[in-house]
Amino acid sequence: MSLRDCQAWKDAGLPLSTTSNEACKLFDATLTQYIKWTNDKSLGGIEGCLSKLKAADPNFAMGHAISNGLMLVGTGTSVKLDKDLDQAVKTMVEVSRTQTLTPREQLHVSAVEMFAEGNFPKACDLWELILRDHPTDLLALKFSHNAHFYLGLREQMRDSVARVFPFWTPSTPLNSYVKGIYAFGLMETNFYDRAEKLAKEALSIEPTDAWSVHTMAHIHEMRAEVKDGMEFMQRTEGHWKDSDMLASHNYWHWALYLIEKGEYEAALTIYDSQILPRLKASGTMLDVVNSCSMLYRLQMEGVSLGQRWQAVLPVTKKHTRDHVLLFNDAHLLMASLGARDLQTTQELMTTLQEASKSPGENCQHKLAQDVGLPLCQALVEAENGNPDRVLELLLPIRYRIVEIGGSTAQRDVFNHLLLHASINCTSSIHKNVARNLLMERDALRPNSPLTERLIRKATAVHLM
Ligand SMILES: [Fe+2]
């Protein structure tokens, strides 16, 4: 792989304020691995590249920006939780003041600083400002993509790429990956055919593009194309299983098809052999979410999970007080509820309430009162066997849950929660809620075996 040096970045219209060619190449190597969702051993992995990058030029502002940005945007941590990261963000800002940076670089530093404060919307604005003049700035594009994803801003996530897409030509490095990123936004806004065309184009150029594989998995999921989805994952597994940052999530998608079909044992086999081992090895928040989401879905389907929640709890428990993303909080809560760890559940709820009372610039803490807390409380009520209370909490906010971010497929776990509660509720106030929700789901996503099973269940108790 030819990595770009100082002159190459300048020629691309994206000059970097360093005289170190080594630093420029390591910046490129880091960016490339981030885009590919894969630590490349031949490049030294992302961490290896970042430590060499800092040694090559300690005053390289964009080196600091990509390093801090990856920690913040990529790993689900925050400066409040990680003192070293807090210091690293301060150092980045100091470095940016002592150096003569281009306006683009200055915006990158400010965007990461905003994101560190929990002000994701402002960070997005700044990355978008960069893209207005620098449509091939892939770091801005990808950070903006991820931040929009965390905010549940699906149209913005799509349009952010649409605006710059024509500037990406076959000769632009990593151009095929931009097709995959664009395809994901198209898929999340229901343009399935266009998304499929682009994702397939990306994969024809680079079959190991795990994000484009992932977009294809979503397209099959949204269309309830269970057979096609399973065949696609099976056929392509060899291409994406070594993507250390995304493989677990792609296996999660594969398992969703099996849950949809009611093949729970096969889903658990994927969980035990692929998802849990990766969670234990990485401990990343995406792998946490994959595990919790899958176990919770299986639990709602009535599957006996044995001690699986207990195996997840040691990883999730450490994050009880984090409150970086409400989406993560809801999944962490599934684990403490599943493992019947009342103290951890209580601690998560109490500290989230506290965070919501003094949110400052933090967009997630601002949203906690209206959406995050009722959602988390609904999970608690479901565990306590109060389905009517679940409905009381979730029905008023169901169209706002999107604001906690994640994908439509990921948030579907909350639709399942609502559906199961509606089938089990007893209050006459909630008469016909189950029927309405199931008819709505069937209309939106026809031919779903899971929906059909729920309809049969509802019919059996005379709710349909
Ligand atoms: Fe996904």
Discrete helix count:
24
CATH architecture of the largest domain: Alpha Horseshoe
Could you tell me the mean pLDDT? Answer: 96
Uncertain stretches: none
Main sheet summary: none
Measure the end-to-end span.
59 Å
> What is the CATH level 1 assignment of the largest domain?
Mainly Alpha
Radius of gyration: 22 Å
Percent in helix: over 70%
> What's the quaternary structure here?
single chain
Which fold does the CATH topology of the largest domain refer to? Serine Threonine Protein Phosphatase 5, Tetratricopeptide repeat
| Total domain modules | 3
| Percent of residues in beta strands | under 5%
Features:
Serine Threonine Protein Phosphatase 5, Tetratricopeptide repeat; 72% helix; 464 residues; single chain; 24 helices; binds fe (ii) ion; mainly alpha
Fold topology:
Elements (H helix, E strand, L loop, with lengths): L5 H6 L9 H16 L8 H12 L4 H15 L7 H16 L4 H14 L3 H14 L4 H14 L2 H11 L10 H14 L3 H14 L4 H13 L3 H15 L6 H15 L2 H19 L2 H16 L7 H10 L8 H13 L3 H16 L5 H21 L3 H8 L13 H17 L8 H12 L4 H12 L4
Bound molecules: fe (ii) ion.
The site of fe (ii) ion has 6 residues, from helix 12 and helix 14.
Note down, in words, how this protein is organized.
Helix 2 runs parallel beside helix 4 (61-75), helix 4 runs parallel beside helix 6 and helix 8 (138-151) packs antiparallel against helix 9. With 464 residues, this protein is mainly alpha-helical. The protein starts with 5 loop residues before the first helix and ends with a helix. It contains 24 helices and no strands. The model has no long low-confidence stretch (mean pLDDT 96). The protein has helices spanning 6-11, 21-36, 45-56, 61-75, 83-98, 103-116, 120-133, 138-151, 154-164, 175-188, 192-205, 210-222, 226-240, 247-261, 264-282, 285-300, 308-317, 326-338, 342-357, 363-383, 387-394, 408-424, 433-444, 449-460. It has three domains: 1-153, Serine Threonine Protein Phosphatase 5, Tetratricopeptide repeat; 174-282, Tetratricopeptide repeat domain (Serine Threonine Protein Phosphatase 5, Tetratricopeptide repeat), CATH 1.25.40.10; 293-430. It binds fe (ii) ion. The site of fe (ii) ion (FE2) has 6 residues, from helix 12 and helix 14.
